[in-house]
Amino acid sequence: MKKQEISIVDDEPINLMILKKLLSPSFLIRAYKSGSDLLQAVEKGIKPDLILMDIMMPGMDGYETLAKLRKNPDNHGIPVIYISALDSLVDEEKGFSLGAVDYITKPFRLGIVLARVNAHLELKQARDRLKNQNEWLEAEVKRRMVENQLIQDTTLNVFAELVETRDNDTANHVLRTQNYVRIIAKRLQKNKTDINCLDDDDIERIVKAAPLHDIGKIGIPDAILLKPGKLSAEEYEIMKTHCKIGGNAIRLAINKTLSVNETKNEEGEITALFFLEEAEKIMNYHHERWDGKGYPEELTGDEIPISARIMALADVFDALTTVRPYKKAWNMETVVTYILEQKGLQFDPNVVEAFEKEIDAFAQILNHYKPIYADGK
C-alpha cells in the first residue's frame, strides 16, 4: 500500500530531523527549508497529503506561504498544520483564518504531533473518499440522464416515423420540419419580441416536440390520408380530427404517468414531461390560423401557443415544397410569396418576419434533407 505523503517546512534543521525521525516509519516525508521551496514543489505537481509548517521563517513566513498556497483552488484540499513557538491566541486565530486545520506549539510533544497528524490524515482520507464517491455519482447520474434522453428521443422518433410510413414522404419530413422550427424559434429569440420571448430551454422543448405534430394521423383511415385527389367535405372533416386524436393521446399518456409517479418537482409536475405538454399544444393547434379561421378550435392571434404558430408555418412550408398525394411541389419563389402574403392572416406576423430573414436557411435545409418518396423518385 502506498504511503501517505507529508511535507515538512521549517528553516531549523533540528526540527526537520526530529519530525522526519518521528514520521518517516509510517509516511513518505519531504522536507523543505522555506515556504518558497514548498510552493515550487507543489506547482510542479508534488501534492502532499498533509503539510507541517513553521510560521517564523526568513523571507516568506508561514502565513504568506499558506495564503499563496490557497490561491490555487486545487490546493484547498491539502490540510496544513502550523508548528510554531508562537503560542498566543492571536497567532492561532490568524493561522486558522488563513485555512490551517491545526496549530501545534514548540517544543514538540511527539505523541501529540503523531496523534494530530494521524487524525487529520484520516479526515482527509474520508473527505477524499466522499469526493470521489460524489464525483462517481455525478458521472453516473449524467451517464444515465444521457442514456435516458437517448431512449426518449429514439422512442419519439419511432412514433414520428410510424406516422410517416403511412404517408408518401418518409422521415425526411420530420427532419426538415424540426429544423425549420428550430430556425424560426432561434430567430424569434434574436428578435426578442415581448410576445415571443423564448429562452434556450423553451426552444429545445419546442424542437423536441415538433416531430410529434402529426402523430394523430395514425387514427385517420388510409383511404382519406392517401387519397390522390381533393378530399370531400366529409373526408376533410375526418382529416381535421387528427389534431385532437394526437393531442388527446398525449394528454392521456401524461395523466397516466402523473397518476402512478409521485416523484414531482416543486411545481407538482414531472420535468421530463414538459416537452410532451408542448407536444400536446403543437398537435392540437398547429392548424389554427392567426385570423381565427383555422381548426379545431378557431383560436385567434396570441390565443394560439407560440410553439403551434411556429409549427404551422414550418408544416405549410414543407407541404408546399414537397410532393403530396394531392399535389405537385411548388417552387421556392412561389412558396415564399404565398407565406409572405399570409402574414397576419394564416400566420403570426412575427413568425413570418422570422421566416423572411431565414429564407436561405430554409432553402439549405430543403436541399440537404431532400424528400424521399415511396416510389424511389
UniProtKB/TrEMBL annotation:
The UniProt record lists the keyword Ribonucleoprotein: no
The keyword Transport is annotated on this UniProt entry: no
Pfam families named among the record's database cross-references: HD_5 (PF13487), Response_reg (PF00072)
Alphabetically ordered keywords of this record: Phosphoprotein
Gene Ontology biological-process entries: phosphorelay signal transduction system
Transmembrane regions: none
Sequence positions bearing 4-aspartylphosphate: D54
Residues in Response regulatory domain copies: 5-121
HD-GYP domain span: 148-371
Protein role: May play the central regulatory role in sporulation. It may be an element of the effector pathway responsible for the activation of sporulation genes in response to nutritional stress. Spo0A may act in concert with spo0H (a sigma factor) to control the expression of some genes that are critical to the sporulation process.
Protein name: Stage 0 sporulation protein A homolog
